[in-house]
Design brief:
Layout: H1 9-16, E1 23-29, E2 38-39, E3 47-52, E4 55-60, E5 66-70, E6 78-83, E7 89-94, E8 98-103, E9 109-115, E10 121-126, E11 132-137, E12 142-146, E13 152-156, E14 163-168, E15 178-183, E16 188-192, E17 198-201, E18 210-213, E19 219-223, E20 228-233, E21 238-244, E22 249-254, E23 270-275, E24 279-284, E25 290-295, H2 310-315, E26 322-328, E27 336-341, E28 345-350, E29 356-361, E30 367-372, E31 377-385, E32 391-399, E33 402-407, E34 412-416, E35 422-425, E36 432-437, E37 442-447, E38 451-456, E39 462-466, E40 472-476, E41 480-486, E42 492-497, E43 505-510, E44 514-519, H3 521-530, E45 538-540, E46 545-548, E47 554-559, E48 565-570, E49 574-579, E50 584-590, E51 596-601, E52 607-612, E53 616-621, E54 628-633, E55 639-645, E56 650-655, E57 660-664, E58 669-674, E59 682-687, E60 693-698, E61 703-708, H4 710-737, H5 740-749, H6 753-766, H7 771-778, H8 782-795, H9 802-815, H10 819-824, H11 826-876, H12 882-913, H13 916-923, H14 944-992, H15 998-1021
Parallel strand pairs: 31-39, 41-45
Antiparallel strand pairs: 1-61, 2-3, 3-4, 4-5, 6-7, 7-8, 8-9, 10-11, 11-12, 12-13, 14-15, 15-16, 16-17, 18-19, 19-20, 20-21, 22-23, 23-24, 24-25, 26-27, 27-28, 28-29, 30-33, 31-32, 33-34, 34-35, 36-37, 37-38, 38-41, 39-40, 42-43, 43-44, 44-46, 47-48, 48-49, 49-50, 51-52, 52-53, 53-54, 55-56, ...
Helix pairs in contact: 4-5, 5-6, 5-7, 7-9, 8-9, 8-11, 11-12, 11-14, 12-14, 12-15
């Protein structure tokens, strides 16, 4: 590529030598609450339980990470759940009307299930002891169940509406246990479980979703969507007071006496309510005077009419509408009140000054963009309380490792990478579409509300405090919005920020196809003079430059590293290059077949990269004819985002099929593909400035932080090679010293089936007492014994290794009950099935071979009878019959040749099918067929190829034997007819040659004697 020859070129080249090969998902932020019920156990308040897409998710409150997910099943969903106070058991109800208990101490293992109500259960609650659970159903009845046995102890039918909540009275009177149910329509029932008495409270006009009891148990408070708070005397459950609050309420808690805030008194009893306004309000229970309030973000004040129906209230809820509100008195050092909003955010406010101690984002919805905070050194404030009450403050320098995420929400997520703490940046009135950060510590965000906001990242964004145990607690402080830029006529879908420290501008692109350049240099100087403080954001409506960019929507922007050039990607299939700050068109890059999603400038070379919906990535020359230099193909869906890493030598790309790929520019190859972490389209991709960290976000609500693990894996691989070399040296030493127990153990650890087979072969041939192998197998672990079983299965598929396979298998079964492992390991079950099937086939084959040996015995016996008959005939023939004896001698030779042929052919086939020659081949190092088992099916389906070879051998042997038998029969018949013909010829010859001389008689006698000697010699040899 054409280099720019700028400063840092040589340094970039040196960095380029270190190419990345793999990234590891270091941290995953995923959904843990998608609305509905959320709770914290009463005594063990370390985890948060909540709904998550029909399942129950268990989230660690400290880290915000998902700890456990209890799934309902493929065709079923949970409708309600409850947790025992000690967080040991989870009770759920499903759409199938099954009530189930789950062991949380055993990874959520199912304990018991029983049939519950006839209709789905919508409310559940456990008693303070954790032994019984109450369920409220849409059949308008309440049932009480014993958790351990699943038996129903009480049933209270006849409610006027659907049960929405249940509550056991804490600290009940002696001999009493009271259960309070709240039904749709405003009815509240108090059910006494011992006497089964029921009291009906009907003073609410609309649904009363929550009740709370005073610490002394003498008063009960209830709130409703009729915008009132009622106080009840628990002795008679009569209404004592009613207070209007002018807000539809969802929850109420009675604050403990230890609660401290400005103006509080330990002699007074305070209650806190939460509802549609997204605000927690604290009242004095005696006068119902508002004494404190906690605003969640910047909620929109509701102006609904008091007589509005509940359906209309549900439709017009603001994102900060609180849907769950309860007290977690034992959470942390001081306790907390917990609130869950309509936007799936769960907040924890400490009972000391109501400071927000924790925020958990339950569901991020669709992640649209991610931006890393600039890599700068930031002072972190550290506070520590000492014994004498004095406060010691220190400061230290640390990196601001923060990422910002834009979702389908007007609030920007701000995550601390170290602790995964999160804060929300409120300001936009509609979904944020794009994010960008500048080198001078500013965050730029664009939204569907047609505005761009500028946020100042100052030194107090992260504060660090030490808790009572001396642990560091990092707290995020959201940055302040300092300016609002407006001027676009439609949604602002993309922004790009300057890269050089002395520049102060950014470029925005809108769906109205326009580009605008905004300069904030004067604003920056003003902020430096006045300080940031808490001033209102400045409104800026005049852009420094503007231009109509494309014919269709502009999807992506990027600014070159020297801030002199802008690249734009559009749905009109083109990429355009513009000069900065004039916004003059320099060139148009054409070549993509579909809309272009993203562009990125190389940090070193004068090239620009683009990704498109045509599943390709292209690199273009900047300048000249703007030609395409490279095209990368490999994605199977639209490539939504790209980024250069490692000084422009590699490219990271993400696509709509949930894949991330790593490319090398020089070789035009894809090195790695990461396709297992996301489940939906990946829209966001952002790299840290040091190149070691990458963040991705997708439609599955997951934010994944990837770390470059190339160097770590290289060191790990090198360490493994060194350890492997040492272990192999130990194996060779053990074999040399004949330490078979140690050799077997090392071979199993190294997965050396070849070496293990050699050891078993040696023991099979030279240690028939089995004592050595028995000791070695007893020293092996259950996992290693299972490995021997699996390897024996492979050896059993080859006839050459059959004897050693069954030798090792027999000793293994004698030394250890391997079937305990078979029941636990599914692969072991398959191995046993295949061993049985193949062993049965081997037995059938050997049985057929044995039957064929009987045929050979019969053939050998028949050949001996023929020879005896020949001897008898030879003894009866006169000495003067010369030619006939010569023919008989030839006949005898032919019979013996046939027998020799049968023996030779049979021996060759037996040796070929048997195991002796194969064992010799193994001893000579021929392991071509060891471990060659096809890993196909479970029931021996993958071994048919090997078995066909054995069947072919048997069929060949059977065919050869049949051929030899038929040839023998034909030769026997021809020999008999030849004898008759020769005898008749001898008689005619005798009559015709009766007058011949004595010389011929002497000669014939000699020939007969010599033939007899030959026949005797052959008999002896036979």
């Amino acid at each position: 590529f054409i280099g720019n020859g700028g400063p840092g070129r040589e340094e970039a080249r040196m960095k380029a030598q270190q190419l990345s090969r793999t990234f590891r998902a270091e941290k995953v932020l995923q959904a843990c609450y998608t609305g509905g019920k959320v709770c914290v156990p009463a005594r063990k308040q370390t985890h948060l339980f909540g709904w998550c897409n029909g399942d129950v998710a268990v989230c660690n409150i400290t880290s915000g990470q998902l700890s456990l997910l209890v799934e309902a099943g493929e065709d079923d969903n949970f409708t309600s759940f409850a947790v025992t106070p000690d967080a040991s058991t989870l009770i759920t109800s499903a759409q199938s009307q099954l009530i189930s208990s789950w062991d949380l101490n055993n990874d959520g293992k199912l304990i018991k299930s029983w049939k519950g109500h006839k209709l789905p259960v919508l409310a559940m609650e456990t008693d303070p002891s954790g032994t019984i659970v109450a369920t409220g159903s849409t059949d308008r009845s309440v049932c009480v169940w014993d958790i351990s046995s699943g038996h129903m102890t009480h049933r209270f039918p006849g409610h006027s509406g659907i049960i929405v909540s249940l509550r056991f009275r804490p600290r009940p009177r002696r001999g009493h246990m009271e259960l309070v149910s709240c039904a749709d329509g405003g009815e509240i029932r108090v059910m006494e479980l011992y006497s089964r008495n029921i009291k009906i409270l009907s003073d609410h006009l609309q649904t009363a979703p929550s009740v709370a009891f005073s610490p002394d148990g003498r008063r009960m408070f209830s709130v409703g969507r009729d915008k009132v708070v009622n106080t009840w005397d628990t002795a008679t459950y009569s209404l004592t007071r009613t207070f209007p609050v002018y807000e539809s309420l969802e929850g109420i808690v009675v604050l403990p006496p230890s609660t401290l805030f400005k103006g509080s008194s330990m002699k007074k009893l305070y209650i806190a309510t939460a509802g549609e306004k997204g605000e927690i309000i604290v009242y004095d229970s005696a006068t119902m005077k508002k004494v404190h309030s906690i605003a969640l973000g910047s909620p929109e004040t509701s102006k609904k009419d008091q007589n509005m129906t509940e359906e209309k209230i549900q439709e017009e809820r603001t994102p900060h509408h609180i849907v769950q509100f309860f007290l977690a008195e034992n959470l942390g050092a001081n306790g907390a009140i917990v609130s869950a909003t309509q936007e799936h955010n769960v907040r924890f406010h400490s009972l000391i000054n109501f400071d927000q101690s924790r925020l958990i984002i339950g569901h991020n919805d669709e992640i649209l963009d991610i931006a890393w905070a600039p890599e700068n050194k930031t002072k972190i404030q550290e506070e520590m309380d000492v014994d004498d009450g004095e406060e010691v403050k220190e400061s230290k320098v640390a990196e601001l490792n923060v990422i910002f995420a834009a979702t389908n929400s007007g609030a920007i997520r701000m995550y601390d990478v170290k602790t995964l703490n999160v804060a929300l940046l409120h300001g936009h009135s509609d979904a944020v579409l794009s994010l960008g950060t500048t080198s001078d510590n500013f965050l730029v965000s664009s939204s569907k509300d047609q505005t761009i906001r500028l946020w100042a990242l100052h030194t107090e964004n992260i504060s660090s405090m030490l808790d009572g145990a001396g642990r560091e607690v990092r707290k995020l402080n959201p940055p302040q919005c300092v300016a609002i830029f407006s001027g676009h006529a439609k949604s602002v879908g993309a922004v790009a920020c300057c890269n050089l420290q002395h520049n102060s501008f950014f470029v925005s692109a809108s769906q109205d196809t326009t580009l605008k350049l905004w300069d904030y240099k004067k604003l920056k100087a003003s902020l430096k003079r006045k300080g940031q403080g808490s001033q209102e954001p400045v409104a800026i409506t005049q852009a420094a430059a503007g231009e109509i960019g494309h014919d269709k929507d502009i999807n992506g922007l990027d600014i070159s590293r020297d801030d002199r050039m802008l690249a734009t990607a559009s749905a009109d299939r083109t990429v355009k290059l513009w000069s900065l700050p004039e916004l003059e068109l320099l060139g148009t890059l054409k070549g993509h077949k579909r809309g272009v999603w993203s562009v990125a400038f190389s940090p070193v070379d004068r090239v620009v990269c683009s990704s498109s919906g045509d599943q390709t990535i292209k690199i273009w020359q900047v300048g000249g004819d703007f030609s395409c230099l490279r095209t990368f193909q490999g994605h199977e869906a639209s490539v939504t985002k790209i980024n250069f890493i490692n000084a422009g030598t590699q490219i990271l790309s993400v696509s709509s099929d949930a894949e991330m790929k790593l490319w090398t520019v020089k070789t035009n190859e894809c090195i790695s593909t990461f396709a297992e972490k996301h489940d939906d389209k990946i829209w966001a991709l952002s790299k840290h400035l040091d190149g070691r960290w990458v963040a991705t976000g997708a439609e599955d609500s997951r934010i994944i932080l990837w770390k470059d693990a190339t160097e770590e894996e290289e060191l790990l691989e090198l360490k493994k090679r060194d350890e492997m070399a040492l272990r192999e040296q130990e194996l060779r030493s053990s074999l040399r010293n004949k330490d078979w127990t140690k050799a077997i153990k090392i071979a199993l650890e190294l997965d050396h089936s070849r070496q293990l087979y050699k050891i078993f072969t040696h023991l099979y041939r030279h240690a028939p007492d089995d004592e050595v192998l028995r000791e070695a197998l007893e020293a092996c672990s259950s996992e290693q014994r299972m490995k021997i079983l699996l390897w024996a299965r492979e050896w059993n598929t080859h006839t050459g290794y059959l004897s050693v396979a069954h030798y090792s298998l027999a000793r293994l079964l004698r030394a250890y009950n391997i079937f305990d492992d078979v029941e636990r390991v599914q692969e072991g079950k398959s191995a046993v099935k295949n061993l049985i099937q193949y062993s049965e086939r081997h037995l059938k084959r050997l049985d057929r071979l044995l039957q064929k040996t009987y045929l050979l015995d019969h053939m050998l016996a028949g050949s001996s009878l023929v020879s005896e008959s020949v001897d008898a005939v030879l003894g009866q023939i006169p000495d003067d019959v010369v030619s006939s004896e010569e023919d008989e001698d030839v006949e005898e030779v032919n019979q013996e040749d046939i027998v020799d042929k049968i023996l030779v052919e049979s021996k060759e086939n037996l040796v070929h099918i048997g195991s002796q020659e194969d064992v010799k081949g193994v001893e000579n190092g021929d392991f071509e067929h060891v471990g060659g088992m096809n890993e196909g099916g479970e029931d021996g389906e993958g071994f048919e190829d090997n078995w066909d070879d054995v069947e072919d051998k048997d069929n060949d042997l059977e065919g050869e034997v049949k051929t030899i038998v038929s040839e023998t029969k034909e030769e026997t018949k021809s020999s008999k007819t030849g004898k008759k013909r020769k005898r008749s010829e001898n008689e005619s010859t005798k009559s015709s040659n009766s007058n011949k001389g004595k010389k011929k008689e002497k000669k014939s006698k000699k020939n007969i004697q010599s033939s007899k000697k030959k026949s005797r010699k052959k008999k002896k040899n036979k």
